[in-house]
Amino acid sequence: ILILLQAPEIASIVDLRGSASRLIEACSQLAVSLQAPQETAAVDVFVRSYTDFHTAVAQAIKQQPDGVQRQQCVSYLETVRNEAVNVIWRTHTASMDASNASALQLLSQSTRSLTESVNAIVENVSREAPWQRECDAALRQIKSVRHILDRANLPVNNDGYYESLDSVTEQAKRLGEGMTGIARHAKNQDTHSLCESVHIAADAICGLAEGATQSAYLIGVADAKSQPGHAAIIDTSKCHRSVEIVKQICERIERMEYTQQQILDDATVIAKHTSTLANLCREASERASNVNLKKQFINCAREVASSTASLISAVKQLDSSFTEKNQRECTEAARSLYTAAQQLETFVDNPDFAAVPARISVAGEIAQKTAKQLAVSPADASTWQRLADNSKIVSESIKRLVTSIREQAPGQTFV
């Protein structure tokens, strides 16, 4: 009888994990199908995948016995829904104009945010072994960044050629450590350490993809006939990601959906992300050449910092005395921070702040090709699944990647 009662829950979780993976795969495919004949079909697959995932999550939430966790899942599901809408909208915007760097970066940000929220939901409701959850989350994380390798006409970050090469080398080293750890900890049945190694390896693969893409961009624009682009004044992807998290928590505080411990944890998360926003504004102010623009970025940072300080103070007061009066003060402070974050989000969503894509010559594209092709290999899902047995294959492909980047160093043709 017990087995029969548990069967629907197990089936639901399996469906949830499968639908989560299909959703991220569809999202990644959508990002690489811009302006391609298969774009419409990719949109249809994405919509169906999202519908399946939403249904699976709704079923899992009904079976969740803990009320607090149930509410968290509902909140995450709302985030997934919003990000899914953003993905469709930003795909449409980017497909209308492939040179719209801002739209492409926002699409990439939505893809990552969607992956993070999907992973949070699966983590919350899954009942399988931790190592299995970690491996599934790692695969979804890898899929979510794979599309950046297909578009190397935009700088991924501000790294120069040798900084990118150092990044690729360092991430390759971390991947090697992660792979070794996976094999060792799996053999010793050390689940906690195994999960840590899987996480390290997944982060390293994503770092490799970014480093290789930045290197490919720099190699491409180094050709004399290429026209370099330039990086965005502010990292809109990182900014929108932090703003979204701050707004979600503020909304939860406004609705008073928290326990005393939860609001303390939320305050810590808010402090982390508002600090990120302040640093982004400071960096943008340093990059901006217009004096008024510099001041606007600084003012935005001050507004966010001031509102955050007020909220943190209100939360501390609530922690010492959990009363309705202090709860109302927290609500007002959260509302104020929400407004400041939203104003910053509106301000930075300006096409003039976006990166300008490079115009890469035919010769530049040929030089890029090797690095881009080899960069895909370490992130291949089938390679990942056979990671412990095939570490030599991955290691060799990374060595070829690093060698390829070194051989294509800008300026060699003029020496």
Automatic annotation (TrEMBL):
The domain of life for this entry's organism is: Eukaryota
State the GO CC annotations.
Answer: cytoplasm; focal adhesion; plasma membrane
A biological process term (GO) from this entry:
cell-cell adhesion
Report the InterPro entries cross-referenced here. Answer: I/LWEQ_dom_sf, Talin_IBS2B
The Talin IBS2B domain, residue ranges: 234-351
Select a single GO molecular function from the record's annotations and give it. Answer: actin binding
Protein name (record): I/LWEQ domain-containing protein
